[in-house]
Amino acid sequence: MIRDPESPDQNWGATLFSCGFRPFFLLGPLYGILILFYWAGFLSAKFPAPPSSMDALLWHKHEMFFGFVGAILGGFLLTAVQNWTKKTSLRGGWLAFAVAAWLLGRFSIFFSVHLNPILVLSLDSLFLLLVIEGVARPILLAGNRRNLFVPMLLFCLFASNLLFHLELHYDLGLELHRILDGAQAIIVIFLVVIGNRVIPYFTRSAFPGLELRKFPMLEIPVHFALFSWALVSVFSNLTWLHALVGFLCSIGLLTKICFWKTSKILSNPMLGILHLGYFLLPIGFFMDACLHSGLWSQKGLTVHTFMAGSLSLLILGMITRVSLGHTARPIQADSWMKTSFLCMIAALIFRVILPLIKPETLSTFLSLSALFWILSFGIFLVKFFPILTSARLDGKPG
Question: Is the pTM of this model over 0.85?
Fold first, then answer.
């Protein structure tokens, strides 16, 4: 049965909780907009610091990682694992419970100064535990060993959040920003590994005659350098070692990308945004290596090359693609999507590139970057809200 795309879904609630990508691809961008809007207002002295037990900068970083990225990562993985294993993941009531857990976590963090620390820790931990169960169970049932790294990385992300809360309230002798650096490293690993898997596949699907060369001998060294970089980011004060593994990650990823023929694909917006986002990963590793080797001192620009650059572009490109593909719509960029992509690229330019050229106008660039970032995801929400709350066009479940 082919559905009329203009007809409303009478049971939108059941549709919304039929697959993980639907609620979390709405909530993640919406929350990201709210975080950045509040953060920009705080920086311009228009809003007070959030009533949280952590300072405003820690709140901003924590919620971008565990709130915004957590929702997107959860929605993507709960959907992808069903394709990998042919087993069902969280859906229906359990998915609604996971959404409620995510919402409670966000409210508890924002108002944490008024709440018991153990209650905040428990509420903020519940969502990731549910996602780990929702991902690990079908993988184990299917004997899908190739994807066991996913629940393992999710557990590392959960552990970093747990350590953050314990250090915040019980002083374990750790550094809060170092713990968040570890969370960022885990997120970057997800970007590298999943991007390395899906971007070539999407490219071959769109360009059947285009041959993308693979170098299996590079996989193990690159992954070894990647995990070494994550460990050094958290546990080592040896800046020369941090710089070395950062350079190795950058060289390894750039070598792989050189054979992806990215320049030929940028004209296709749905693929171009993914290739551009992935290309920024080795740039981020290079900047991080330069930072720790003393060649420059701009940590903020380094972090945002990963986060405002690679992460944001890859998230926007991926949630757009998944939302279209998993609702049986053509994977083509219309004017709304192209505008959204261009706004995100503008946000990257104002946050990372222009501050390098004119650092004295950083505050203006930050405001403009936030504006374009918010516009980008705002356009996504306007375009995809009716799509994510409506049944598939082909009548299939999901």
Answer: yes
